[in-house]
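RECORD TYPE: inverse folding
INPUT: structure tokens
STRUCTURE:
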């Protein structure tokens, strides 16, 4: 149900966004939201075309008097990150999001909001359905499978597109214009461990972690948010005789892991020491973690016995969790802490019935700078006898500060709002670099309203940035 105080201006944008939030759209399951776009296009009398991956282009005719201008591509992705808190019953494949207005922001009830990139999709549809907007010929490009590795853009058929100028609406800080983004890659690591029956005298426990903020592994990696994998491992590191039974932490390669659990057994004599150990780790962590992680908590619960790994191999896994890198590796020499040049996210750790998996992803602006990090991680994998599965990488988008589109947009922003916008590159994987590689003649600019906490259940869209974002978008198109 739409909240009573749901925003109303600009009307077309907010209505489309609400409808999008009511349609489940995990990565790889975009058919229903794509059908919504198709229905809107049919109602508006716009032609559509789609490639075999499900990427969709809607062709919107120019406003009267602007027919002779060059076509502009408006690009967004249909899918969303699907993360919720442990206490929230929600099926992202079936349930609509429950929205609320809170402190000047729109958010969802203990789930991701999908403003990344649903608000951009809504803006694109509003360009088509709002008769007050004046624009040149448009190609509204809606890609799929972005959040799990930019798969739709990587496999996009470039014959779908004819335009040479593109506005990407998938960045998250209003009054900033983006002209570059990071590239990236990653790995899945696997190993099979033998299991055994725990000692009948041992006690078996599940240790859960919650209360961390989590977040986007690109744009928030510099915030030093707590990593649930690292902290759980730290709780048991060095405790003699611990035998691990299970591990389940993390949800996706591009999300900083915020909660999870590890199952283990240990001698009864050691069990009595666990509460004090956990409180020590918690207090130490709160001494250096950011304020957003202030609700960090460990929950220890005794459970029935199940098969475990040997003590020596359990110690090996804990050593792995400690050794694999996580966080910022280098900052920009030109911009310092304003821009991360290289980072890595230890994203997922799983162990079930002896099958162990780690997933890690890295981001870079200069791929050569990432090579020592890649070599170090692969050396760790060899040392711990892990098999390696490469995750498909994607190119970065190298900044072009001489872009005519950037100059036009910067001048318009100053005219409309009386301030010069910040021109930036983002330490995240936009689809711009991939699309630029497929259509080298593209002049690209990215911008959007302010979204905080993307990829986490605290995701929120700052309402008062949406109207100026729309004003800027429509004024820019009227000039192009």
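DESIGNED SEQUENCE:
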């Amino acid at each position: 149900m739409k909240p009573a105080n749901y925003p109303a201006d600009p009307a077309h944008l907010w209505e489309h966004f609400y409808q999008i939030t009511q349609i489940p759209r995990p990565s790889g399951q975009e058919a229903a939201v794509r059908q919504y776009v198709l229905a809107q296009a049919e109602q508006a009398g716009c032609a559509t075309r789609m490639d075999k991956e499900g990427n969709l282009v809607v062709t919107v005719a120019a406003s009267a008097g602007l027919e002779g201008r060059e076509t502009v591509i408006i690009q967004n992705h249909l899918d969303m990150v699907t993360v919720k808190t442990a206490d929230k019953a929600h099926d992202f494949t079936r349930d609509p999001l429950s929205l609320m207005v809170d402190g000047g922001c729109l958010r969802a009830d203990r789930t991701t909001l999908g403003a990344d990139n649903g608000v951009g999709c809504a803006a694109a549809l509003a360009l088509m359905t709002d008769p007050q907007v004046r624009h040149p010929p448009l190609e509204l490009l809606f890609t799929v499978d972005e959040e799990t590795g930019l798969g739709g853009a990587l496999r996009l058929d470039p014959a779908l597109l004819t335009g040479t100028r593109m506005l990407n609406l998938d960045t998250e800080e209003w009054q900033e214009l983006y002209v570059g983004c990071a590239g990236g890659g990653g790995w899945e690591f696997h190993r099979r461990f033998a299991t055994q029956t725990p000692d009948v005298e041992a006690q078996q426990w599940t240790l859960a972690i919650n209360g961390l903020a989590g977040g986007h592994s690109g744009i928030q990696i510099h915030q030093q948010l707590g990593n649930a994998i690292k902290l759980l491992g730290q709780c048991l590191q060095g405790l003699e005789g611990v035998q691990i039974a299970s591990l389940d932490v993390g949800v996706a390669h591009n999300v900083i892991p915020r909660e999870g659990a590890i199952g283990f057994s240990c001698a009864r004599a050691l069990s009595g020491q666990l509460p004090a150990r956990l409180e020590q780790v918690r207090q130490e962590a709160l001494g250096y973690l950011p304020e957003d992680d202030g609700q960090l908590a460990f929950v220890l619960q005794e459970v029935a016995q199940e098969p475990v790994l040997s003590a020596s191999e359990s110690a090996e896994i804990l050593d792995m969790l400690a050794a694999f890198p996580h966080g910022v590796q280098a900052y920009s020499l030109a911009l310092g802490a304003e821009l991360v040049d290289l980072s890595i996210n230890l994203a997922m750790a799983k162990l079930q019935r002896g099958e162990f998996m780690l997933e890690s992803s890295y981001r870079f602006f200069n791929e050569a700078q990432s090579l020592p990090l890649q070599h170090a991680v692969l050396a760790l994998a060899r040392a711990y006898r892990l098999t390696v599965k490469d995750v498909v990488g994607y190119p970065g988008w190298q900044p072009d500060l001489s872009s005519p589109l950037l100059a036009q947009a910067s001048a318009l922003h100053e005219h409309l709002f009386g301030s010069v916008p910040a021109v930036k590159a983002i330490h995240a994987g936009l689809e711009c670099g991939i699309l630029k590689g497929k259509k080298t003649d593209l002049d690209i600019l990215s911008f959007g309203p302010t979204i905080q906490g993307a990829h986490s259940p605290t995701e929120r869209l700052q309402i008062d940035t949406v109207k100026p974002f729309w004003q800027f978008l429509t004024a820019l198109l009227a000039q192009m």
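NOTES: The mean pLDDT is 96.
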